[in-house]
Amino acid sequence: MNMIVPQTTLATPNGTTRPQVRIVIVGHVDHGKSTLVGRLLHETGSLPDGKLEMLKAVSARRGMPFEWSFLLDALQTERDQGITIDTTQIRFRTQSRDVVLIDAPGHAEFLRNMITGASQADGAVLIIDALEGVRDQTRRHGYLLHLLGVKQVAIVVNKMDRVDFSATRFNEISDEISAHLIELGVTPTAVIPISARDGDGVAERTPNISWYSGPTVVEALDALTPARALDELTLRLPVQAIYKFDDRRIVAGRIESGSLTTGDEIVIMPAGKIAKIKSVESWPSTPVSGPQGAGRSVGITLDRELFIERGDVIAHVDTAPRDTRRLRARIFWLHDAPLKEGASILLRLGTREARATVVAIEKAVDPGELEGVATKAIARNHVGEIDISLAQPLAADTYNDNPRTGRLVIEVNGRIAGGGLVLSVLAGQRAVPVDIVPVESALRPDERSARYHHGGAVVWLTGLPGSGKSTLAKALERRLFDNGGSPILLDGDTLRAGLNNDLGFSAKDRTENIRRLAEVATHLARNGHIAIVAAVSPSLHDRAAARGIADTLFREIYVATPAEICEERDPKGHYAKARAGTLQGFTGIINDYQPPTSVELTIDTSQLAINEATDATERMLSQTGIIFDEIVDLAANI
Amino acid sequence: MHILNNDQAVHGLRDSARIVAPVTQQIPGRTPGKPPSMDHLDELEAQSIYILREAFARLKKLALLWSLGKDSNVMIWLARKAFFGRVPFPALHVDTGKKFPEMYAFRDQYAKEWGLDLKVDYCPPIETIDPTLPPAARSAARKTEGLKLALSKYGFDGLIAGIRRDEEATRAKERVFSPRGTEGGWDVRDQPPEFWDQFNASPPPGAHLRIHPILHWTEADIWAYTQRENIPIIPLYLAKDGKRYRSLGDADITNPVSSHARTIEEILIELESTKEPERAGRALDHETEDAFERLRVAGYL
Fold first, then answer.
1. Per-residue pLDDT for A552 more than 80?
2. Interface membership of A163 toward B (CB under 8 Å)
3. ipTM confidence
4. What is the reported pTM?
């Protein structure tokens, strides 16, 4: 066996000082990825004892010639079908470095697994069958490597034995794929003719490819460089959580780029609040002195008590990211159902989770086909550019400015369904930074929830006038209070008498009315109370905005009593006045009420007695984690 | 390019002045100096801490599976780093009752010393497990049952487990956040995509997530880190009379390997040259070709 790795380089007692590169192997199905990996492991002496014999036995048992790919296709289904289903990782060493090989499946239906593997790579090997040449999936993989930010790509033309090691065929393929990649902005680091099964070009230049003078696969891997540190970019620290395990209030997160140290003046985006870093905390010894760079998972304390939450981004004052409600992104889509204009999506950018709407879709194409057909929806495994409108502002960079904070994923039903790069950011109106210093409560949320046996929430009751919102709201308030809780009723009309007495009933004023209600309710909820909002709130859009403000604290109840019963009840006499034409802008008769499509609970008070409706509400609050059945572990709720 | 003076930097900027300054310039409000570069262990540690914090932020009821072995000890250490000295969720030991005495002694000592909220739950008797399974697989299936019982008893929606990709070929296919069915099963054919450290953390009702914070570590990484951080270990890992345990399971189905490594340093040197797989001493891996895969699909770690 040809041992590439000299024994002398192996004896490093801590074994961890050598540079490590992560290489993904991609390409069309059956072009020989797993075989190449098996061969590489064998040639570099990286196979454990007995593995070769085991593979021979497994192949023999199936009545097949020796199959290298069985090494990685460990799963029974994979062996039975002869395909790689999911990405896997395996390590070996070259002369100068440790290589983590990520084997990614080639089947179109497993593209999500290829992306999962490739997103972790510093470099890639794109494999092409010499006989079949460049295929759709080859181009698709090339495109996705570019989109994932993998810049170093070595091309391997495999199965050269099938084309009699023809230099002409090799040059043909080399020209075609190089042209494709260069168009995408990726220059191949090498194009190598090989036969993975027999070992030509893998670790050695054999007589079969004597006409080839470039590097072998092993040499090409040796030439790839580990990913660059992101220290030189500006500081970005997405907040993962705030911990209050003791008297410290630690902001925890990973520095995605740049560096920070005690005394730095920072801005918390998107709100634009400013503070100074008081200390960098650690364990077992704390505090830490000196700068901390990109890649570190840190904890910092600040000189001011500001409201900070998961999803905020900490930056230096002069180099903050934009706060925005509008993004343009290039997306690749992995979900079965196409992404369409108008779709409501959940977006994750850094540690921020945000609801958003797809405002426009452009240039939706299949990156595998040469001639793309533009459509207004992005089908599975296709790519497109989309405009996104966000329910709440977030901090973002463009991918060009910062590859870490300029990329996002989209979730459908709790599962990642696509991802992409931020192309542009429409900056918000807020002057940044602002030197307002909100004062925080002296109490921690867990202190309150321990007393009330519930967390904070905004319970939003929507429905036609007379549907029974206020009645249910008051019954719920009484029930929660009697159980030791802290409910507060915010009735739409009551607030219009004071806080909102400057607002009328135009669409714009109604929107502002709802926004203020949501802000007040959210403030109460963040401080551990259950704010019960009873407001007609006819507009879907306004309610979505309210949900955006309260975010995970929001629970919407649609009081869906039929319109004729509401009018029959007419508790405030409004229907009668509206019918008589003496009440303008009344929802139910003049304006349209837009019923919700998805809410936490729907109640029809013509079918349910008030105590039953209250029971159902209480059940929902319990099932969605607001009301605790038992006293919870305080730490778990910090 | 527009460089800000100190006054502007402190008191805020107009939108028009929001220009990113060149990084080579010294900017007020930012401390000079190059951050120390991270070595391989620093990178592994930072990534694991990130994963642990994501799990804690996104799941309601977490537990960390503590098997008392070298990997889960490193994991607890990382959790203490992530949460500044305190592990804010229970450490769950699903006990077969057949561990080595040294392992029980270790558990009782360090649960206390590390301030862990230790929960010990027991596996159902072997008689209740499918008798057609080969002996070691049957024993492992018993552990899966024990785990399922504990899951339903406490209602955990997230289980942090110390498996590593390099241990075993099906573990190499794992996600960092791995969704499990309501029966604890692993649908390897339909794993959600996971990229750029964005994890799928919304298990359907009744199901749970396995979280794997040290999936990307190797056996050598574990030992190098244990040595660097001075993390206590069970002495069975060190050679005595020419034998030591590389992997610790139940006493009746785990065998020692030939070794003269009596310190962690010597273990690291031994790992540089050995080609014997880590789980060579685990009987369960050798019974049938796909024994391990079948167990894992059914919910085994």
1. yes
2. no
3. 0.84
4. 0.69
